[in-house]
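Collaborator request log, item 7. Partner lab (contact: R.S.) asked for a structural prediction of Phosphoinositide phospholipase C to inform their binding assays.
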Amino acid sequence: MDFPDSNHLAKALTIVSGLDTVNLTYHNFFASKEKVTQNWASDILAIAYNAARNNSCRQVFLDKIYVRISLQTNKDGKIPVKNIYKMFPADKKRVESALASAHLPKGKYDTMKPDVFTETAFRTFLTHLCPRPEIYEIFTSYSNKPTMTKENFTKFLNEKQRDSRLNEELFPRLRQDQIKALIDKYEPTTANSNRGLISPEGLLFYLMGPETTVVTQDRLAKSQDMTQPIPHYFIKSSHNTYLTAGQFSGVSSPEMYRQCLLAGCRCLELDCWKGKPPDEEPIITHGFTMTTEILFKDVIEAINESAFKTSQYPVILSFENHVDSVKQQEKMANYCKTIFGDALLTEPLDKYPLKPGQQIPSPAELMGKILIKNKKGSHDKPNQTKKTSTASSDQNTTTAAPTQDPNTTSPDPANPAPSTQENPGCLNRPRGTAGQEVTAYEAMSSLVNYIQPNKFISFDNARKKNKSYVISSFVETKGEAMISKSAVEFVEYNKRQMSRIYPKGTRMDSSNYSPQPFWTVGCQMVALNYQTMDFPMQLNMAMFEFNGRTGYLLKHDVMRRSDKKFDPFCDRIDTVVASTLTIKIYSGQFLSEKNVKTGVEVELIGLPGDPKKKYRTKWTTTPNAINPVWNEEPFVFEKILLPEMASLRIVVHEENGKFVGHRIIPLDAIQSGFHHICLRSESNMPLTLPALFVYIEVKDYIPAAFADFTDALFNPTKGTEKTSKTPKEVKKKKKSIQSKLSSGSIY
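Returned to partner:
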């Protein structure tokens, strides 16, 4: 590797893996030829892409288990049976019995040849290890015979697996040849499939296949219009991106920028401070704390490497600039220009000049571009000794007001700062730019165009100025106060220009606030601490999993249209049909490595007026983590006002309160029907075995007072022999209800 012509970097490959963005493992590989490394990288990306697409398919997970066990051979090429016991540790006696039923060796120290451990044998083993009585119960409700006919299977698919809201012209029911194809695919007995019959085992295999994933697959792919102005999108955003732990003494790392970008993040924060002599290299750290320092240049290189690996849509770099040195700001600007090259957007596009009343470009028009958010000065190079900028009193000025550092207190104006910073990143660093950013000198100021930070004056002032390229930042507490007092005005503001929300300074443990309230008023950049995988971060990760993980999600129509006013605290929305979600928790599979009692919690996260009740199943009557069954009444969330802004959260706990797994799914991505929901870890990583079997139905909300009439409208022959109303009365009532349905007024 030391030879000048070896071109070793093109032959090296590093795989970074981990359960979150902080606890990472590095595997380094070196190939003899460049093309070999490229092939490795292509194969790994293909595997990762397919895993991401199929991670909600239960059978994929079980196939992974089979492959893993098959590959774990000893030096003789045989499979140790103890590996199976390790894979399913919850109940060793059940494992032993299931192995015997599958005619496999059951001794803990036994081994078997790979040709003995076939897929069929593994399926038989699983069937005995994890029997599914609830599947037989569902099966017998459609057939009282050992097999189900194609006609009954068709009835099951139409009644249980089809969304009742779908238009049959646009989304026709399955054809008979498609249903026969499903039987052929999943029925294990050839004699049955040849006769168009499906057994309970075949039904189970179908319910674990990709056709019954809980998430609408085309929602995962890039499916949204990306040609709207950027303020019309939610943007996946990070706060203090450089930190791997707490805000006070955590380690800073350029790797966090790579990992956040690879996770689809599109807005990153850089806290920039003046470097020390003799190199005077600008650094990134959390000012006035004991967090470690990293070089600004290293961060820019890390961003450049990973900016467009996951998403091609624009990256916004949010600078909190405390570098009160013309020379070092020039270094920063030069690094951005030379390292980012053509990717850096230094001038506005011709079609979108920086004028009041002119919207800024769309994500599609800025693909592959990096935008700088930094204070924009007057371009007159000031004296080197000038410390801070003059506060802006109006959004029409070119220089932004000093903005409060999220985690520091305002400086005391009676104690002006010394002119040097002897120890950046340390508590002993002298005051100076503690609570405010410094002047944007010409070099950095010239890089700013469509994302110009400015002090927020009022909604009325912003409306009058009408500058879509002006963005204001709000600490979470200020943002919450604005929502409670002026929610409608906040929505209107976010239709025109952007806002960024950041955590309050007391969150020294890097905890997060809930992003949901800020999304409901259309705030685009809701910045979270990515190093902490708490519930708000789980919600954030789940939401931005969709639209191809582009990091941009198009806001609902009511949050974009200039001719409509949206109040998130309303009890109905004229242009939106509310939904009702019903979920029945049937059973769980392989929930814990211990033989424990478990329970399930279900809640809805949405608008303030959406159902707030949190449902819980009872704890299982006996310790059983392999196949617990809950035979309880369905949970109903009625009148979900804006389904596109609501998410369903399901969490499994052990009886002692220990977290087992969870899943958060946006409501408008949920498919009705029976589903196996593969659970996720706290960091939103798919768990291999734990899953829940549920039945979910999402339908249009119908007020109870109208239920009988709408039933009569859509089922006109139902119960006609009992009705006492005249045909004319029924017809008149139908016409009235139909009119209200079409206008949305009953919702």
